[in-house]
Amino acid sequence: MTEAHKETLGFQTEVKQILDLMIHSLYSNKEIFLRELISNSSDAADKLRFEALSDDALYEGDADLKIWLQFDKDARTITVRDNGIGMSREEVIDNIGTIAKSGTQEFFKSLTGDNAKDTQLIGQFGVGFYSSFIVADKVTLLTRRAGLEASHGVRWESAIEGEYSVETIERKQHGTEVILHLRPEEDEFLSDYRLHSIIKKYSDHITLPIVMPKVTTSEEKDETIIEEEVVNTAKALWTRSKTEITEDEYNEFYKHVAHDGQAPLARIHNKVEGSNEYTTLLFIPGKAPFDLWDRNNRRGVKLYVRRVFIMDDNEKLLPPYLRFIRGIIDSNDLPLNISREILQHNKQIDAIRSGAVKKVLGALENIAKKEPAQYATFWKEFGSVLKEGVVDDYSNKERIAKLLRFSTTYDDNPTPAISLSDYVERMKEGQEKIYFITAESFKAAQNSPHLEIFRKKGIEVLLLFDQIDEWLGTHLHEFDGKSLQSVTKGELNFGDLESEDEKKEAEKASDSLKSMLDRIKNALGEQVKEVRMTHRLTTSPACLVADEHAMDASLERLLKSAGQDIAGNQPIMEINPQHPLVEALSGETDEKRFKDWVFLLFDQALLSEGGQLNDPATFVKRMNEMFISMGNLSSPRIITLN
Ligand code: ADP
Ligand code: MG
Questions:
Q1: Pick the residue with more confidence: 341 or 43?
Q2: pTM of the full structure
Q3: Using a 6 Å cutoff on CB, does residue 88 contact ligand 1?
Q4: Could you tell me which CATH class the domain 3-230 is placed in?
Q5: Shortest-distance Cα residue to atom 20 of ligand 1
Q6: Fewest beta carbons less than 10 Å away: which of 195, 235, 296, 621?
């Protein structure tokens, strides 16, 4: 029988690394191993309940789900057992021998090798099953998946050493049993008192009973009686009154539902009464999980119906732009046998979802107002995700827009901290629009030549440099009645901000320049749609702008880099006639030289906004020819820039 054969497999390199790190770094908090094992048993019970909704037989006649904990002083073992879903041989290998979670790679990349720093990191990473090895030098796991025959039991064992064994065994009881063979120095855990207090501290919120044997001796009959004693409160935390729940209890509950090692940033505990009754206990994590960008990740908000776990779900209970929220929603009115299909089109679920969204937005507004430092942390971790809401959630667009934070030219702070309301409050008398620029990086945005005129006039511009900002820029058309305007698009019209004199001056200049602009357009040919005089530049000679209705240049670059084949938009080149380079250009009579100048101007305009040259070699060649033709460096042809 090949199935039954015992095989010895090597741990994934990552697993070895994590084990090593964990054993050394979590040693000061070693009792958490129990929290992790109990948490897994509780998850396994949830999974069984969920699967049994459509197949009752999976309970195998035992729907009284529990977690048993016992220790053996002589064998020096601690055993945690559950009658949850259990695992097949394949699942054991997949779940226990490897770390398949997305984001693990990033986690390992972020490790520094500095033990103190890595300890912090590992604390944020849900440590899980492997924490057993903090106190045990050998771990045996016996399991059978509910619904499989007794002959499909599995025995997994590892004494670390980089490997583990798996063997198919006979196992009557479905569910999982984990036996920890304690390290010699860990005897302190072989104590009723110690184990009770660890459960009380970390696992009291677990809704299943956690049971330990209680041994009493009857004096009359001189015999020992072993009873089962439930150690935890075994009551759903969220059903208790808020005032009764301690901060620690909330935090431990959060760590369990979120698989997170550190406390949350904020929580929202709420009971809604009426025709559609439900309770929400939601948390904003303190740190983005490693799989935040994985839209398939189901660990978001869990749905319960009258205290019974129904399923993990992200999309039905909260929209994707709130996928960082963790916690539970417990409905009093949904049917227990609700399926995913029903969830898709259920009015009550829709109402719960929109209520939950409002609660989360309300909580964020509250933090933003009262705890700016906390809000800054939130924004750093989850701001990019929240921005998706402006595009995705039309009904809450305005509220979400108020929660956004940006860098702007007001203080040139690379950390986004300015709200659109702040911006609007500072708008100049006569300023009608909210101006923004998008670029690939803060520096590129901050130093863009397009901002010159805005800086000169003291008009604030939002500096957008997050990838998603491109979409934001095209979807957030207005805020507080003011339209948003890209400074790199269309003609600049400052309206009342420009004095009549300035306008006249500009027109005059533009007339006398007309012939040179035509010459430039001729030289560039199809490269540009139009060449015109600029209103935006004060210190740079030229810049490129997009047509009012065309795609923003940086959005175009983003799409191209994402492999999309889009027809390039012809940019409009704007020339600054005051610039000495341009002045020199107008006097150039040699057509070849004129053309070289023009191309140099065009290419540097492209470069300065973060674009890529079509033909960098020719650019360099032209530049060098220019230098050589200038010959002597003290020649009057050399241009001094202001
Ligand atoms: P996490 O709980 O965050 O997924 P763990 O390391 O704690 O990470 O557990 C890894 C996986 O092993 C779990 O996701 C689950 O699939 C499986 N597992 C662990 N313990 C049990 C158990 N008692 N019953 C069933 N499956 C389990
Ligand atoms: Mg776990």
A1: 43
A2: 0.80
A3: no
A4: alpha beta
A5: 40
A6: 296
